[in-house]
Write a structure and sequence with these properties.
The chain contains 10 helices and 7 strands. With 223 residues, the chain is α/β, with parallel strands linked by helices. Strand 6 and strand 7 form a beta hairpin. The longest helix has 14 residues. The chain binds S-adenosylmethionine (SAM).
Length: 223
């Protein structure tokens, strides 16, 4: 597993895995995701699940190059969108394609971020939790709940249960090769809905499971 350190001088920040597992691959991220993951399909389902309305505030945790935010901003003018990511390099790419109504924050989702920026109507995240350690998945989901207003919505797209032999083989050959097995296996074993429930979310629904050349990507929504 490739873990990078942030760039804050004088302080050892938490580690994170860059977008494609290795910092040198980040320039290829958008093309690889588009070609290898049937991105239009799963991201379209995520955007539909989010059902953003003008005037709503949304947080995208681990926004990466900003693909989700750009789509949402074009589709729903008048919404207020915040992208958060610990990788300063990927945020430079995200800012290049920024649309009106979108702002970016550098860092992790933690108590300080929640105190400063919450509440949000919607917290979204795509392809982030599969590349974090199990305890980090728990911590992110807990802070996601804290960041939401009462009745707010959670929408997540990520690698979920790899139910068939083919999906398990493809997931192992691609995502687990880039991001390592330790962090990714809990997703492949289908742990995310239980972790959402443990974090206090209710009405957890898997609304899609899209087979791709890199494994199955699920879309969930919860309250
Ligand atoms: C595979 S990329 C996904 C980017 C984007 N959400 C998308 O759908 O294309 C994962 C992103 O999560 C970020 N990330 C990794 N660990 C994180 C953490 N603990 N908290 C928040 N973001 C994290 C990485 O910096 C990276 O930009």
């Amino acid at each position: 597993m490739s873990m990078e350190r942030g760039s804050d001088p004088g302080r050892e920040p938490p580690a994170y895995t860059p977008a494609l597992g290795h910092r040198a691959l980040t320039p290829l991220y958008d093309a690889v995701i588009a070609l290898a993951t049937r991105e239009n399909l799963w991201r379209g389902r995520l955007v539909d699940a989010i059902a953003l309305k003008a005037g709503e505030r949304l947080l995208d945790v681990g926004c990466g190059t900003g693909s989700l935010l750009a789509t949402l901003a074009r589709r729903t003018p008048g919404a207020s969108l915040v992208g958060l990511d610990p990788d300063a390099d990927v945020l430079i790419r995200a800012k290049r394609r920024a649309e009106a109504g979108v702002s970016f924050e550098h860092g992790f989702l933690d108590g300080d971020f929640v105190s400063l920026h919450a509440p949000f109507d919607i917290v979204a995240s795509s392809l982030v939790l599969h590349q974090t350690p199990l305890e980090t998945k728990r911590r992110i989901l807990r802070h996601m709940r804290e960041a939401l207003r009462p009745g707010g919505r959670l929408c997540i797209a990520d690698y979920g249960l790899q139910a068939s032999g083919l999906m398990r083989i493809l997931f192992r050959a691609t995502v687990q090769t880039l991001d390592g097995v330790e962090d990714t296996q809990p997703n492949a074993d289908g742990v995310l809905p239980a972790l959402m429930s443990e974090a206090g979310f209710v009405d957890i629904e898997e609304i899609a499971s899209v087979p791709t050349a890199t494994g199955a990507i699920s879309v969930w929504r919860a309250r």
